[in-house]
Amino acid sequence: MDAPINAISRLLQPRSVAIIGASADPGKTAGRPVAYLQKHGFAGRILPVNPKADRIGDLPCYADIASLPETPDVAIVLLGAERAHLAVKELSARGCAAAIVLASGYTETGEEGARRQKQLVDAAGSMRILGPNTIGLVNLTDAIVLSATGALEMDEFPVGGIGVVSQSGGILGSLLSRAAARGIGLSKLISTSNEVDLELADFIHHLADDPATQVIALYIETVRDPAKFRAACLKAARKGKPVVAFKIGRSEAGAQAAVSHTGAMAGADRMYDALFKQVGVIRAQTFNDLLDIPVALATGRHLRGKRVAILTSTGGAGTLVSDDLGVAGFETPAPDVATAEALRALQTGSEAVLDRNPIDVTLAGLRPDLLRGAIRALLASPSYDALVIIVGSSSLAMPELMANAIRDCLPDSDKPVMAYVSPHAPEVGALLTRHGVPAFAAAESCTAALAAMFKVGSFAAPVEEADAVGFVDLGELPSGSLDEAQAKQLFTRFNVPCAAERIVTTPTEAEATARELGGRVVLKILSSQITHKSDVGGVAIGLTPETVGERLIGMTADVQAKAGVRPDRFLVQEMVGGGTELILGMHRDALGTAVLLGMGGVTAELFKDTTMRLLTQDAQGLHALSRADALAMAKDLKTWPLLDGFRGRPKADVEALVDAIVAFSRMAAQLGDRLVEAEINPVFVRAQGQGVSAADGVVVLA
After folding, report:
1. What SUPFAM superfamilies would the database entry show (predicted)?
2. Bridge partner list, 144
């Protein structure tokens, strides 16, 4: 790992930069890198290469790479895709640490582009590549801009603690300019684009060690190496550096046609949700969140609860913030007696509304002393965990006085303090942000920022547990869809409890089995061709020894009429009841293998109360979920109260459920790529001490 990190350090902090294909015209894309390096104060050596020019500005220009007087740390390659690999090969031969390839025309264009991309990789050898199809990188911490983005036409940028890694070049320029306009300080911005070599995870890993970066913001199109991404994000979490990601592609179908409910409910975007949750990544729901959340997290302040004070001089805006916070589960309690008295001592008269929240201090925007006093009283109050200050129109007359007053109070507490700027006044928001008070133009942004701060405060990087049980000898397994009996036999081998049942072929056998199992039974067709048996009349419940034979005859006719298949094998199963019905399944896509838990039964897809966890993978293969993961999954569900004794209901056997989830995940881990789909729906969770029981099962093997 040392060599790649060293190469990335040289990429981000080069002492010399070669510009291959540099133009003397700063108006052209090929002319921008030299112009921007000079404009923004690069202190190292700039080495333009162009056989048609002797000088570019005040710099000598070299005819080719061989003519360079030294080996550059980094080269920006501005040649087209048909020639870029030639320059890359020469640079690698000279010992250059890294090349930034701006050209497009690679895998994003099809088969010929993929051939060019392989050619580029082969040419690079051990030299690192950023791109291709990248806009480059910007290191604001050290005034090093290795990019052609037009956003660098701006004269200056705030420098701060937010590092940005984007798989889109255009988005890098967008975030750079938006952050500057809002007074948000960034540290490094990197566009990885096609990621022929260096990728998201490499830069997350590096920024986790970067003393200038406190928060890492990601613009993600896809995660190419989930294991590497997971390791990098967990490293950042353990270093106390939150990662915020905006993932595009949420509207894609994700799940292909599947025989199980799980396949329909999982989908690619749900898999990303699961991955992000497991590694502590905060998911930005909107593009604006990708700056709003990091700027709040970069303050380093700690949100220990969900009680928020809203200080306002305009009632309507305070209500907007309060309402949005309430929808997200935050509380806005009235001031306690001591806090109310402290506030009342600051301002008298009927204008002040100090016994409720939002706390309306009418003259706060015009009297900095009053604003300071109110802020200090609220930050000192044991009733509040955070403070949102509403900046109304009355504050616009003296924004500097107001910003200074808020800033003066920040050292008094480590509670989050942020501002909602009610009028359209971007310059006031930028002023506050530069003073260390994240300022937002939307009430929803305050909520998103506080929610992210709460998640960061409650996340603990997982401690990996070794699998408790070893390999299960499965013998020879068939390929394709298993019938229900075969599926449950497989579950049983991994110690997932299943309902008692027998295979029958005649009404007489069905009647005898029903007597053997006792009580009421369930009758099902047994078929690997028909998965959703109830849709074709292939399930009947509550049968007795006296009725099961007749129902078998009727079921045979019903299924043949609806499905065109005449069933000749059936299951007679004990009728399980009196518990909570859940669904337990697995789903696999390019991101990995995940286990899904949710509300089960025939309404599983309707309510979609589900949660997912990805299995971890290393050189030894997939690993089962830990018991801690399994319990956390159960607690994630909206229906968790039903398992935990809701309104006097008996508590469910959660320990047995956890055992079943872990056992099911062991099956998914051991079978690996052979397991295409697997699902138990429903799994009945009975009262405490009575266990769980799988009542139906689907398995598809490759």
Report:
1. Glutathione synthetase ATP-binding domain-like, NAD(P)-binding Rossmann-fold domains, Succinyl-CoA synthetase domains
2. 139
The residue behind tokens 């690192």 is: 128
Q: Please, which pLDDT band fits residue 649 given cuts at 50, 70 and 90?
A: confident
Neighbours of 613 (CB within 10 A): 23
| CA–CA dist 128, 135 (Å, integer) | 16
- 3-class SS at 511? helix
Q: Are 121 and 89 in contact (CB under 8 A)?
A: no
Q: What is the pLDDT of residues 610-624, one digit of tens each?
A: 999 999 998 888 999
The tokens describing 178, both together, are 């938006």
pLDDT of 351 reads 54
> Under a CB-based contact definition with an 8 Å cutoff, are residues 394 and 351 in contact?
no
- Convert the pLDDT of each residue in 410-469 to its tens digit: 999 999 999 999 999 999 999 999 999 999 999 999 999 999 999 999 998 887 665 655
What is the rounded distance in angstroms from the CA atom of residue 271 to the CA atom of residue 610? 12
Average pLDDT, the chain: 92
The pTM assigned to this predicted structure is 0.92
Contact 570, 552 (CB under 8 A): yes
C-alpha to C-alpha distance for 643 and 639, rounded to whole angstroms:
7
Which pairing describes strands 521-525 and 570-574: parallel, antiparallel, or unpaired?
A: antiparallel
- Would you say how long the chain is, in residues? 702
Q: pLDDT digits over 569-587, tens only?
A: 999 999 987 789 999 999 9
Number of other residues whose CB lies within 10 A of the CB of residue 214: 22
Angle, in degrees to the nearest 10, between helices 289-297 and 169-181 = 60
Q: Which stretches of 47-110 are DSSP H helices?
A: 81-94
Which residue, among 190, 203, 269, has the nearest Cα to 241 in the 3D structure?
Answer: 203
Q: What is the DSSP string of 325-341?
A: HHHTT-B-PPPPHHHHH
Tell me the sheet residues that pair with 46.
17
pLDDT tens digits for 503-542? 999 999 999 999 999 889 999 999 988 878 988 999 999 9
- Residue corresponding to tokens 């805006």: 317
Do strands 308-312 and 281-283 pair parallel, antiparallel, or not at all (unpaired)?
unpaired
Cα-based distances in Å from 403 to 131, 342, 363, 397, 418: 42, 22, 15, 12, 11
Whether omega before 682 lies within 30 degrees of 0, making that bond cis, reads yes
d(CA 492, CA 471): 14
Number of neighbours of residue 513 by Cβ within 10 angstroms: 23
- Nearest 5°: the CA angle 455, 387, 279 is 10
Q: Which two tokens mark 379?
A: 């930050």
Other C-beta atoms closer than 10 Å to the C-beta of 470 total 7
Q: Where are the beta strands (DSSP E) in 21-66?
A: 45-49, 55-56, 59-60
Q: Averaged over 306-313, what is the pLDDT? A: 94
Alpha-carbon distance 690 to 702, whole Å? 35
Of 362 and 621, which is predicted with more confidence? 621
Question: Shortest CA distance to 517 belongs to which of 553, 571, 464?
Answer: 571
Q: How far is CA 260 from CA 265, 501, 589, in A?
A: 9, 22, 15
Is 613 within 8 Å of 633 (Cβ atoms)?
yes
